[in-house]
């Protein structure tokens, strides 16, 4: 995918920016593949309903798409309920263009 992207913008030499620009102009057939799948839950549960928002009683994080967990009468986000899909490592790092460019060069 990356190599194909570079062919669309040969004038852009920094990989991150080449990908960023190429993905905006590449045809769908170059970007995507399609595979039939079987959902493990009803599609309605996955997409939820527009505008459904609650806040976690512990951390205050806004929870959208009915991803909240209910513990007794307490609304919890997945992280506070112990079902986080990630683990925090170190400090928050602000994301800005220079940082992305540096990462792209280092790949
Ligand atoms: Zn929380």
Number of helices: 5
The helix-and-strand class reads: alpha+beta
Which sheet architecture does the biggest sheet show? 2 strands, antiparallel
Give me the side-by-side strand order of the main sheet: 1-2
Can you count the beta strands? 4
Q: What hetero molecules are in the model?
A: zinc ion
Q: Enumerate the spans where pLDDT stays under 50 for 5 or more consecutive residues.
A: 99-107
Kindly estimate the percentage of residues that lie in beta strands according to DSSP: 5-15%
* Integer average pLDDT: 82
The structural domain count equals 2
Shape: extended
Please give the radius of gyration in angstroms.
20 Å
- What is the percent of helical residues? 25-40%
H/E element order: HHHHEEEEH
Distance between the termini: 15 Å
Short description:
This protein has 107 residues and is of the alpha+beta class. It has helices at 2-8, 15-25, 28-31, 43-47, 97-106, and strands spanning 53-55, 62-64, 69-71, 74-76.
Strands, helices and their partners?
Layout: H1 2-8, H2 15-25, H3 28-31, H4 43-47, E1 53-55, E2 62-64, E3 69-71, E4 74-76, H5 97-106
Antiparallel strand pairs: 1-2, 3-4
Bound molecules: zinc ion.
Zinc ion (ZN) binds next to loops.
Please give a structural write-up:
The chain is α+β, with helices and mostly antiparallel strands and 107 residues long. It has two domains: 1-35, no CATH class; 41-88, no CATH class. It is built from five helices and four strands; from the N terminus they run ααααββββα. The protein has helices spanning 2-8, 15-25, 28-31, 43-47, 97-106; strands spanning 53-55, 62-64, 69-71, 74-76. The strands form two sheets. Strands 1-2 form a two-stranded antiparallel ribbon. A two-stranded antiparallel sheet has the order 3-4. A hairpin with a 2-residue loop joins strand 3 (69-71) and strand 4 (74-76). The longest helix is centred in the first third of the chain and has 11 residues, at 15-25. The protein is extended and about 55 Å long. The structure holds zinc ion.
């Amino acid at each position: 995918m990356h190599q194909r992207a570079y062919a669309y913008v040969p004038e852009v030499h920094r990989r991150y920016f080449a990908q960023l620009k190429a993905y905006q102009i590449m045809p769908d057939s170059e970007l995507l593949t399609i595979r039939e799948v079987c959902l493990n839950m009803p599609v309605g549960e996955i997409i939820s309903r527009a505008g459904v928002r609650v806040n976690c009683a512990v951390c205050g994080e806004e929870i959208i798409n009915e991803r909240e967990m209910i513990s007794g009468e307490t609304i919890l986000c997945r992280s506070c309920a112990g079902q986080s899909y990630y683990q925090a490592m170190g400090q928050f790092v602000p994301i800005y263009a220079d940082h992305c460019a540096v990462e792209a060069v280092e790949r």
